[in-house]
Amino acid sequence: MPELTVDFITSLDGYGAAEGWPGFWGMEGPEYLGWLADSPERDHPALMGANTYRLMSGLAEQYPDEAGMAELASMPKVVFSSTVREPLAWPNTQLVSGDAIEAVRAMKRDGTRPLHTLGSVSLCRSLLMAGLVDRFRVVLFPVITGATGQDRIYDRYPDVALELVEHRLFDGRLQLLEYVPTVLAGPPGEHPE
């Protein structure tokens, strides 16, 4: 059965973006960009919600020559939305308007290629809570954006225990941390009576 990896890039304080800051907080370096470009995951379907689709397809249209945009355009993508309509402007994108959890469950059951997410905080939270996430990967950027941060990633997430299975340092400053997640019913010390 194919694995599903939730993928996030975050500031140290858990934001996915920050107002006025460039993409990647302006800290992407050659090792990190090389890892992105050489990743076998560029051939694996990227799952996203409507907001991420609108944002990323708009950026791809506006900045087609920016780092990573050509790779994103060629990557197979699945957008889960009841508001996005076909035809889709972003190449290699499939629209699923039904239940995302059931669709991903079927993709894992019937598919052959691993899956990963692209942004999509609420979709990732739902997939995690449904027990469909096999890996949780974060690339941590060494910035704190408390005043300008947007898209807090972990708000309304359940409690999750994370077992570290991979780590890497890019360009002497960006940390990749990959975990196997276990959703908890409550804090580890709690026992129902």
From TrEMBL:
Fetch the InterPro entries from UniProt. DHFR-like_dom_sf, RibDG_C, Riboflavin_Biosynth_HTPR
Q: Which GO terms describe its biological process?
A: riboflavin biosynthetic process
Q: Could you name the domain of life of the organism this protein comes from?
A: Bacteria
Segments forming domain Bacterial bifunctional deaminase-reductase C-terminal: 2-175
Q: Name one GO molecular function term.
A: 5-amino-6-(5-phosphoribosylamino)uracil reductase activity
Q: Which Pfam family, giving just one, matches this sequence?
A: RibD_C
Q: State the name under which the record lists this protein.
A: Bacterial bifunctional deaminase-reductase C-terminal domain-containing protein
